[in-house]
Every structure is written in structure tokens, then in C-alpha cells.
Amino acid sequence: MATHVMPPASRRDYLASHRVIPVENGSDAATPIGSSSDPTTSNGSSRAVAVKKLRLSKSLILSQETTVYDACRRMASRKLDAVLLADAEGFLSGIVTAMDVVTKIVAVGLCPEQTIITKIMTRSPVFVMADTLASEALQMMVQGKFRHLPVVENGEVTAMLNINKCLYDAISRLERTVEQGYAIAAAIEGFDSQRQGKFSAPFSFTEVLQERMFKPFLSTIISENTKAVVVSPSDSVYIAAKKMLEFQVRSVIVANANRPRGILTSKDVLRRVVAQHLSPELILVKKVMTVNPFCATLEMTVLEALHVIRDQNFSHLPVIDREGLVLACLDVVHLTRAAGLMVEENAGVFNGMANIVTQKSSDYSPHVEPGHEEYDTRSGLSSSITSEGAETEMLYPPPPIGNSIVFKLTDKKGRIHRFCCGTKTLFELVSAVGQRIAIDGEKCKIKLLYEDSEGDKVLLATDDDLVEAMNHAKSIGWKVLRLHIDDLETNKAATSSTSGLALIKRNEWKSTRAGILVGTLAAASIGVLVYLKRHKV
């Protein structure tokens, strides 16, 4: 088992001998969560990364006699928000985080200079071994609702793991789910078009897939537990800390008339107030808050939010509505848990798609007599999704694996849009961009450019241009292709030379798409294709 709880008999293995207090790091019992050591069974990822391979922070270990003020000062100097404690014999005895300082010192009016740190520490913290998979460590933190894990190697505490270091796994799993969803939806749509719409009227399965996989917006995961706690800029840090304690949150949104002006986190209080020897009762929130924080909208997807959290090293993400009013504040643990649940739920959607295709195929051809060679089309379909490279005879050659690519686009308001798209037709990509920036599809008169490896902006005028751009990005190892919008109104010269071709492509799109989707269907639905071949429906 890759995740352990240290037995109490060993000098360095003392952590499990006491009950864990569920505050910032810990659960009701120091028991391991997620024990699988198989990299393909615990998270479905083929790129298993051990914790020790991540860029870990050096752990700061202090004695139990240290005062809270001294601990905060040393944490601030090293830009840490958690510290480990050792007793006189060298045993690891506990952990203290910024949340502990805020809720157990500032919010209750204790003096940091006169309080010994053992009074606020979480005893017997959960830990991981250095060779534990990062995915398992992430699962531990999500289920335990904490963000820090001591890392133990050869009986010694060597580092501290922060949850943000493990986000790659959550992001990659969700990205794979989205890519599978695109392939399956395309297969269903292509099969339906080949069957002349026999399936679409009663089921609209493609729309279900798009809602559940392609558009898991933040609006779908906001609940009462994610409601933002709001304070005024003129409130004291002491008032803000009391609200953090009352609502058990690690941040408060600083707002005027419910419009965000800043954010104050437990880390801010530790570094900018306690470590600076300032009085929480006298210091106003506006003096120490982080001003103008990045705010997400309800239309941002969970995947995009995870990218923002990881890329910007955020711990909290305020969410606003279309009027700019604060709705919620999501933290990294909540987002990671939501991503994991979506991956698990969508695994059932894949099987549901197979059932529907099989059932509707039977409805379309009810007089088929099963032969001794007939096999379960559902199993064949499922295996075609999960097993890449299986040697199977098919009607059509399989499409290249990984046709989809991630596009990144900045609109005129400076908002960044990030989305996956498996299309090789320019019209479909333009339509996707139009939906992203809220332009009616019939009036979506935009030209797209992509940024090549030399930094030049190259016009996408034809489908071949798009294919070349995607191949170029993949050939140099890019995971993201950056797009730019070239407004037709300001670029009439460039538009006139290609407007006729764009019109032709608009009319040809359906026929071109049919061929592509048939190929996708071949890879995603082996059973259905064999059935069609055998009975010549």
C-alpha cells in the first residue's frame, strides 16, 4: 500500500499514535485514504507521477516551545503557510497552518507573542511517503479537506506537499474526459446522420453529452457551501477573522455594494498582519487585502477554473454574475473534488451511450437473427473507448488518436477563453468561437488567426490552413494553440479575397463533417459498425 500511517513503535513513525483533530490538516482518524499503488487503477492515468518527482517545498520544522508570533515570522520569511512541529526527542508532533493562526489566535483575540504554538497545532497530521502517487496524495487531501501533507522518505520528513502541486492529475483526467466526450458525441451525431435522423428525435443524446461533458460550468457546482463571505473594506482584520471562524472559510471577499474590491485570505492575515506585529483590531481590511482579484464567471468551465488555479497558483477563486456581483468563492479543494466527481459520473455516460446505440439499432432493424458470432455491442463499444491500439477489423480506418486540440482565445474585453475542439473545418471552429464570445452564429463575421512558433499571426482562411496549424502545434509539442480575432469591419481587404471560399465552406460543411464523423464512429462504436457491415442496413 503506497499510502501509510506510521506505526507508533518507531521513533520516526509516531504520527498515528494520537487521534487526528480535523482542522486544516487531518481527519478523525489517522488512516490512509486511497491505497492503490497501481498507476492505472487508482486514477485511470497512464502517467503516474510519484510525490517525490514534484517540485516540493522544503519543510520548516520548529520546536514545540516556539511562540505563534515567531512561527508566523519564519513562515512569512520563507513564503510558507504551514509549519511542522517536533518535540524534544525529535518526533514529529503536529502541524500549524495559516487557518489555525486566524481561527485560533486572531479571531479569539489571543496574543501571538505570548501563545505557545502547541496550543493551536493539529496533532498527528496525515502524511504521505515520497513514493506515493501524486494522484493518491490528491485524493487524500480532497477527501480529508486539507491542503498540506508532510512527505516522509527513509523515515525522515523531507518536504511539504501543497495541493496545488497535484493539480496536474485532476486537470489531465478532466481533459481526457472532455476529449472522449467530443469523440463519442461526434460518433452519435455521425451515426444519426447516416441513419437519416432515426435516433435524434426521441433521445437528443448528443445534447446530453454536451451539457454533461463539454459544458460543466461553474454554475453547476455552486451551492450553499460555496457562498462567498463578504466584508467591507472599512472592517478590521479582526472582524474578517471572526467571519472566517464563524463560516469555517479560508478567505473573505472585500466588497462595496456586493462588488468585489479585494480578497483577504488566511495567508494574507498571517504574512501581512501577525508576522508584521500589527494589531488585527486596528488594521483595516483594505490595507492588507489583495486588490482587484481575478474573478470567474458562471460561464467559466470547471476545467478552465482549474487551469487558472494552477497557472496563477491561486487558492481561492471568486465567482461573479453578469452584473459583476459576488456569488460565491470556490477554493482549490472544492474545484478538485468537483472535477473528480465529473470524471466518475461521465464514465457511466459512456456506457449509457453504448446502451442507447444498441437499443436504437435494434429498433431500426428489428428482424435481425443473432448468429453464433454475434457479440455484445456494448462491450465492443466500451472497449473501443478505453482500449487504444486494439487490433480489430473495421469498416473504416480509425482516425488518428488525439485529433482534438486545446485552443486559447482572448476576446476584446480581455477575457481568456480556453476550449477543446476536435474539428478540422474552419466554419465549425469559427462557430465555436462565436458561441464563446456570445456572437449569434448567423452574424458571426469574424476571421481567426493563429500564433505560430515564431510569434507571427497567420490568417486561417481555409480548412487546410486549420489542419496545418493543428499539425504544426502538435509537431512542436504544443498543448495549446493560441487564436486571435481579426475583425471583418477593420480588415475588409483580407476578407474580400476569402469571402467566397468561406461561403462555399459553409455549404460544404455538412458533407465534409459526415465523412469525418463516420471515421470517428468507426473508432468509438466497433459493435455498431460490424453490425452494419454484416447486415448491410
UniProtKB/TrEMBL annotation:
Residues 121-176, 224-281, 289-348 form the CBS domain. This is Uncharacterized protein. Residues 25-46, 362-383 are annotated as: Disordered. Keywords: CBS domain, Membrane, Repeat, Transmembrane, Transmembrane helix. Residues 402-488 form the PB1 domain. InterPro entries: CBS_dom, CBS_domain-containing, PB1-like, PB1_dom. Residues 34-46 have a biased composition (Low complexity). The chain crosses the membrane at residues 514-532. It comes from the Eukaryota. SMART domains: CBS, PB1. PROSITE patterns: CBS, PB1. It comes from Zingiber officinale (Ginger).
